[in-house]
Specification:
elongated; 0% strand; single chain; 6 helices; 125 residues; 78% helix; mainly alpha
């Protein structure tokens, strides 16, 4: 029974990892997702900060990062974090989905403007 559990955990970990890689590849080929993915981590946070303060972004979209933070900080998870590898992979997949949803639900010109402003912040530092 112990080996069965280990095997199941390994298979599920591989499925989550494959899903994350495929999602990143798919998003990386589409605009404006590819521009967002190419930003450094600090500039991604700048994008989210700019988005939260922009009146052109709907309020329900501004709830997504807040809900994501609550989910990531909560001990209640789809897969508990104490499970090696798998516990963190589900968090990565949820974060990718949340960011894709933010970009999808925000008007295209607004996203492009916010991405350009985040990149400009990247060039000045």
């Amino acid at each position: 029974m112990g080996w069965t559990l280990v095997l199941v955990m390994v298979v599920v970990s591989l499925v989550f990892a494959l899903a994350a890689v495929l999602m990143l590849r798919w998003l990386g080929k589409r605009e404006p997702y590819s521009n967002f993915i190419s930003l450094r981590t600090r500039r991604k946070l700048t994008f989210v900060r700019l988005m939260m303060g922009d009146n052109r972004v709907p309020r329900y979209v501004k709830l997504i990062p807040i809900l994501l933070l609550l989910y990531l900080s909560s001990p209640i998870d789809l897969v508990p974090d104490f499970i090696p590898v798998l516990g963190y992979l589900d968090d990565v997949v949820i974060a990718l989905l949340a960011l894709a949803l933010i970009i999808r639900l925000t008007s295209g010109p607004v996203v492009v403007d916010l991405l350009q402003r985040a990149k400009l912040a990247d060039a000045t530092t």
